[in-house]
Amino acid sequence: MSDASLNTQAQPGEAGFGDYFALLKPRVMSLVVFTALVGLLAAPIGVHPFIAFCSVLFIAVGGGASGALNMWWDADIDEVMKRTASRPIPSGKVDPQEALAIGVTLSVFAVVMLGLAANWMAAGLLAFTIFFYAVVYTMWLKRWTPQNIVIGGAAGAFPPMIGWAVATGGVSVESVLMFMLIFMWTPPHFWALALFMKADYEEAGVPMLTVTHGRKVTRRHILVYTILLAPLAIGTGLTSIGGPVYMTVSVVLNALFLLGAVKIWRRDEDAAQADKYRTEKSFFGLSLMYLFLHFGAILAEAALKPYGLGGW
Q: I want to staple 65 with a disulfide (CB 3.0 to 4.6 A). Which of 106, 186, 189, 237 is the partner?
């Protein structure tokens, strides 16, 4: 971490509960909780509701711990970027060392408690997820390579595998496919954001693809990854976690996603700047719904199965 983040000082007594909660990246945590819950409920083995609740809670705490460690390390660049300048550390509400202590403590707590509540396979996956996000992505990839989002996206893709492992004690084709769905979705999702937030990343010195290779190359990469994502997402519907509900949702969403990616690919900078990147922002919004609705469809299939309506 650079000297800028180390020198960021919090004002004594200024931080409130909301500041500490924001340190855990609640919006990211909500995605972690949702996809982990879907992985748990879609698994072929049932879990006692209390164990399921505790497991998802500890997974959420682990996700929050990752967020705290990320904010501790990235305080210097968060201070530069408009999108992140109001976060607890750069705004001076939480001391960096306090954030570090919270992140480490919650990480250990979450992993140990998940192991005791569920099993150590799930706990091991959670531990690796925290390590991957905090160390491999945040401390290494993010500032080193324009492929930061491609490789680092794995960190956000593990929660459904962890949820599946809570129920089954292992890994399967279905849990890997849920992992791959998030993994392949992450690059076009974040690159769309980077298209209209390029100046922020450039000023902060983050080697996002838009900064290192330009927007034209980024648009092409969005299209390529979207083309690769579509058959993977639709193919997941042919497995035990899929069914007619999932397949219908996936076909429609991927058609819309491909159409959006083609529109972005055809754009030039004059057109994009003229309408303030409206197409890119629209694609980014669609990408949020894309992931939520895919996992919502998996959850719907799991809910319908006891009545003989879900699955094939």
A: 106
268 Cβ neighbours under 8 A, 6+ residues apart: none
End-to-end CA distance of the chain: 51
pLDDT tens for each residue of 159-217: 999 999 999 999 999 999 999 999 999 999 999 999 998 888 888 888 999 999 999 99
pTM for this model (two decimals): 0.90
Cβ pair 234, 180 in contact under 8 A: no
Nearest to 166 by CA among 1, 30, 55: 55
Question: Residue 119 CA to chain centroid, in angstroms?
Answer: 24
CATH topology of domain 17-170: Tetracycline Repressor; domain 2 (1.10.357)
pLDDT tens column, 264-280: 999 999 889 999 999 99
